[in-house]
Amino acid sequence: MKAKTQPALPSFYDPAHAGRRDYAPDQAKLFAAAAPWRRDQSILPSASDRFALHLLLIDLQKDFCFPDGALYVAGRSGQGAIEDTARIAEFIYRELGSITQITTTMDTHFAYQIFFPSFWEDRDGKPLTAYREISAAEVAAGEVRPSPMTAKWLCGGNYAWLVKQALHYCEALEKSGKYKLYLWPPHCLLGSDGHALAGLIHEARLFHSFVRGAQSWVEVKGGNPLTENYSVLRPEVLTRHDGAPLAQRNALFLKTLLASDAVAVAGQAASHCVKSSIDDLLGEILSQDPALARKVYILTDCMSSVTVPDGKGGFLADFTPQAEEAFARFSAAGMHLVQSTAPVESWPGITL
User: Fold this and answer.
1) I want to staple 171 with a disulfide (CB 3.0 to 4.6 A). Which of 105, 128, 136, 163 is the partner?
2) Is the pLDDT score of 158 beyond 70?
3) CA distances for 44 relative to 179, 211, 305, angstroms
4) Are 267 and 273 a contacting pair, CB within 8 Å?
């Protein structure tokens, strides 16, 4: 029988690092500290777990986790992602002996993608700005259009094809009933500092890996320039306007998640990538066996929603209601809404 996890935090852990963008753990020291910690806390390797708990950490990257990031997830409090980061790290340390494996997703983009202003221009050739919607009707009327200079890199120079694809994409989004295309500022560009994991998260997941002999898995998403990829399980649109495939579902990772005895989900942002990932997971569960929803645990205190302050104490945009509606829907489907401070062994349906 697996030894019970002790609710201890390692001496190197400092919650103040949750707010430090420049913080980076000493990876060699983490490895050196792992063996003594494993011995002192009587923690066994993950391979010996009889109950497999998979922790899915979504997009805990610097551009989302710090106020000077390109797309800081502040929540309504203004401290959302910072506070979430500390809670996630502490959850990992307290439950090190219960978490079998951790997978971290990483939003990964390039300079020109369909959800960035750089992809678009108005009818006069002027660039668009972030934090606005683009409707299929606007594209059809020529009020907005793809920037012609992107055609060479995105479709071999066939600009007419790119215009058709942009219209098809917006129409497909709207027909799905999810939302209209929304333009975000450039974020999580591959090679940028903002793409990296927040230091406190990297420290915790790497220490878990070293202590438990579990690989530090990463799922990369978002690199297709012609579709959004909020969810780790699939892009938003899978087909091109000519019927050819544009992208595909992440079927292998989906299979990995459903093979676990339990899946715990945390990360950023509750209103977007977390919500979309759980939505897609739920869709697959409902197509297979609705009872599988009971193996999903959503750490509601370890995620925040996107908000855009107006500079006057209010918000230009606040996506919190969308997250709250999704939580209610997930709960009604059988998924569990839990707090990170509650011991895993107390969660409903958990038998460690």
Assistant:
1) 136
2) yes
3) 45, 8, 36
4) yes
- Number of domains forming the structure of the chain: 2
Q: How many CA atoms lie within 13 A of 99 on its CB side?
A: 33
- Assigned domain for 89 exists: yes
Asked whether residue 270 falls in the same domain as residue 341, the answer is: yes
- Describe the chain by its helix, strand, coil percentages, rounded to 5: 40, 15, 45
**Residue 249 shares a structural domain with residue 124:** no
Q: What average pLDDT does the structure give for the chain?
A: 95
- CATH number (domain holding residue 321): 3.40.50.850
Residue 156, Cβ density class (10 Å: 0-12 exposed, 13-18 middle, ≥19 buried): exposed
Given the structure tokens 């409902």, which residue do they identify? 286
Radius of gyration in angstroms for the set of CA atoms belonging to the chain, rounded to a whole number: 21
- Asked whether residue 251 falls in the same domain as residue 278, the answer is yes
CA dihedral 215, 216, 219, 222 (to 10 degrees): -160
Contact between 221 and 240 (Cβ < 8 Å): no
What confidence tens digit (pLDDT) does each residue in 236-289 have?
Answer: 999 999 999 999 999 999 999 999 999 999 999 999 999 999 999 999 999 999
Q: Mean of the pLDDT values across residues 93-110?
A: 97
Instruction: State the Cα–Cα distance between residues 271 and 258, nearest whole angstrom.
Output: 23
Q: State the pLDDT at residue 351.
A: 84
